[in-house]
Amino acid sequence: QVQLVESGGGLVQAGGSLRLSCAASGRIWSINAMGWYRQAPGKQRELVATITRSGSTNYAESVKGRFTISRDNAQSTVHLQMNSLKPEDTAVYYCNVGAPYREYWGQGTQVTVSS
Q: Does residue 74 surpass a pLDDT of 90?
């Protein structure tokens, strides 16, 4: 069974940094891409950043230049380095794994940025 375990969320002051990690385990035929999404209260879940098997990355415009997504060499763990955090970054952050025929989601980790 596939499980995504997220860590690294917490409270931080505006301008600070956090590093999120997500480790995928269980039976997955292959991982096409891994990424992070977030959902703030009253808003739809939105894409934050993704990284493909080849290492290509994609970022939401609102986080470009501040966030960096990366993978471990094993390519089963994804990280999100978040710098220069803003109060509007406050949300629950979800890890996502794209595999053939389906997607997997983590339980989410809370990120709160105080002003």
A: no
